[in-house]
Design a protein that fits this description.
This protein is an alpha/beta fold and 194 residues long. The chain contains six helices and seven strands, in the order H-H-E-H-E-H-E-E-H-E-H-E-E. It has a seven-stranded mixed beta sheet. The mean pLDDT is 90.
Length: 194
């Protein structure tokens, strides 16, 4: 376990509550594409707004994060709200994702490029990947990570997940009216077809 990262995120989540915040745009906007039942994985879930959303829609959800503090909060929230949501403490640099295990995978505001092949393999046939994270081409109002290694190049999600069938993609870059639209992120949905 990367204890330095774990301690950092434990400190961040110490005073926060699960249930705060909304799911990311791509998941909220395209919830109508979700299966009516099945299993879902929320990778690097943080306070799990995506996982809570999926569980409320009837999916059985695993929410993985490096912070054991936030995982404990997720499990308490799930129990008190009778949700099929299970938090697990996972260090993605040391733990794999079981193959063909999930009907839906959600990744938001997290980028570990080396995980892309494992994410594809973890989807069941017909499974959907919802991915939304920060891009390098940003507007003046940008507030994401300062390290460009944690931001996507233009159209990078299309390349990372080229094995999947493209369902939806949105990346607006820095053209047009910069204070309107979905800026500073790329939003992707892909489906595993075999």
């Amino acid at each position: 376990m990367d204890t330095q990262s774990q301690n950092k995120w434990n400190n961040i989540y110490q005073e926060s509550q699960v249930g705060e915040g909304d799911p990311v745009w791509v998941l909220k906007e395209f919830s109508h594409l979700l299966p009516v039942n099945g299993t879902a994985l929320d990778i690097a879930c943080g306070l799990a707004p995506n996982g809570v959303h999926l569980a409320r829609l009837g999916l059985q959800v695993e929410a993985w994060d490096i912070s054991d503090v936030v995982v404990e909060k997720i499990n308490q929230y799930a129990e008190s709200n009778k949700l099929k949501l299970l938090g697990k403490t996972v260090d993605f640099s040391a733990t794999g994702i079981p193959e063909s295990s999930f009907d839906v995978i959600v990744v938001s505001h997290y980028l570990e490029r080396k995980l892309a092949p494992a994410i594809v393999k973890a989807l069941r046939p017909g499974g959907l990947l919802f991915y939304q994270t920060f891009v390098k081409d940003v507007t003046p109002s940008y507030s994401g990570p300062g390290n460009p290694d944690f931001r996507l190049d233009s159209n990078e999600l299309l390349k990372l997940f080229s094995e999947l069938k493209l369902v939806a993609y949105r990346e607006e870059a820095t053209i047009g009216v910069l204070d309107e639209g979905l800026r500073n992120v790329a939003a992707y949905i892909g489906q595993k077809v075999n």
